[in-house]
Amino acid sequence: MPYPLDAAAVRTWCELALEALGRERERIDAINVYPVADGDTGTNLYLTLESAARAVEAAFDGHASAGTAPGLADAIGAMAHGALIGARGNSGTILAQLLRGMTQVLALAPDAGPGSADALRRALRRAAAAAYEAVAHPVEGTVLSVATAAADAAERAAGGTAEPAEVARAAHRGANEALQATPGQLAVLGRAGVVDAGGCGLVALLGALADALSGEVSAAPVAIRADAPLPEAAGCGVPGPEGPGAEGCADPHAGGPAFEVIYLLEAGDAPVARLRARLDRLGDSLVVVGGDGLWHVHVHVDDAGAAVEAGIEAGRPYRIRITHFGGATRTKEPAMAARAVVTVVPGTGLAGLCAQAGATPVPVRPGEPPASGELVQAIRQAHAREVMLLPNDPELRHTAAAAAEQARTEGVRVALIPTRSAVQGLAALAVHEPGRSFDEDMVAMTAAAGATRYAELAVAERQSWTMAGVCQAGDVLGLIDGDVAVIGPDLARTAMTVLDRMLSAGGELVTLVLGADVPDSLADRLERHVRERHLAVDTVVYEGGENAAPLLIGVE
Question: Which neighbouring-strand residues pair with 512?
């Protein structure tokens, strides 16, 4: 019996799709040869949809507690949002955009009635278009081609008295036919004798949608090769040009970037447009999905720090995940001497703290930023062949880059960690481990810095316009991520407001760095405020000493 296209159908779709991808996960992983043969497309799709399904269940639970029932817009919106925040890998990111495209249509459609079949047709068309828009360099023979074929088939089926189930079934058949054609469209698939892994996942997803709307559940596996059984994943686990097995295995990452960088980003449309252009120059496999201030960014690069830094310049990146592709693009590094950290610090107390942690501090006075020569000298004094450089100030980015370049000409391997505040530097320093590889250490420190929001409290010297309004001389300014967000009468109350704003987006650890002239009682008041207002959030306090700002705040 056909079912209407409503919130209940979306919930059932999630359940059936999760089951289908669970069954197909290993088979899809085994045929993953494009864009990177890392054997995780099926797993990434499953984890992405798992996040979507959890969001739908949360939407139903929320409505149930309020004594109401969710509508189609609530359910499909939750599904798309859950996929966006939980997207994994290239395939999961594109899946999130496909669902977002469907939401843009279905959120405005009625729950049932004559328009439902047409709404589904339009939703599938918008989904395909949105996926193409999200990918920097679309390639045919991939999930994009499969999505377009599904939309074309849905177009032909919709009309007259067609039910949503008929449109969904037609879309599934069209997608499956297009999937079988992918080896002839993309050379790497043809050589391996397999269909596109991402497209395979989309076929499973559309099959689940057809089952949810028709009430006729089918567990038929997706054909991953049109003319042969599943290849045995012997040897490297990926079928090679001559078929499966160790002899057909090639380095799956040879010639490609070394890192996969993924993060969520809070930013406006204009900064994201600039971010796309910058990341496109840095690497490949670029997919940026989302909208309305929240984006999911995926890219493969050699310079993971630069990719995260680009996100910091565009907005607020968080949930940063950096994966090294198994070292396949790098030759084995020679044995190195001890690795060092050079960090710029605004305060004598922080300088001592960083020195105790084994770093070489470069203390600065307010209004007197170090020159590149000073940073080069600090790198030399570290007496190491590998150095992590932490500028801890967005204004020092170019200065630090010049210093790093100069040190490299002298034979020192330098990684510029994109820290924009001393609290981000402390977070990066906390995860520094000289015993692991240079790349792994750089990834961990960059991720820790990027996952830390920062704030600074300062006293206005004169009347001026700010992002938060007009301030008067003597007002306390609360700067969050570099912009004035709060203007207050005193340090304590302004700091509490800043903390509440920062922790409204979540957090597990608050770092407070107090300047020399701040009373000790302030730390106690702020710790008590966090403990009472924000459960399960820990607080650590450091003395910044002379030359430090009145108060620095970090939230991880």
Answer: 541, 553
pLDDT tens digits for range 104-161: 999 886 544 434 889 999 999 999 999 999 999 999 999 999 999 999 999 998 776 7
Can you give the pTM of this predicted structure? Answer: 0.63
Query: Which of 456, 347, 461 lies closest to 394, judged by CA?
Result: 456
Residue 233, number of CB atoms within 10 A of its CB: 18
Place of tokens 């530097």: 425
pLDDT, tens digit (0-9, with 9 covering 90-100), for 458-467:
898 888 888 8
**Percentage of the chain surpassing pLDDT 70?**
90
CA distance 406 to 196: 45
Distances, alpha carbon 432 to alpha carbons 178, 190, 340, 382, 550, in Å = 48, 44, 9, 15, 27
| Strand pairing category for 551-555 and 453-459 | antiparallel
Please tell me the chain's helix, strand, coil percentages from 3-state DSSP, rounded to the nearest 5. 50, 20, 30
Query: What's the length of the chain?
Result: 556
Check residue 68 and give left, alpha or beta (phi > 0: left; psi -120 to 50: alpha): beta
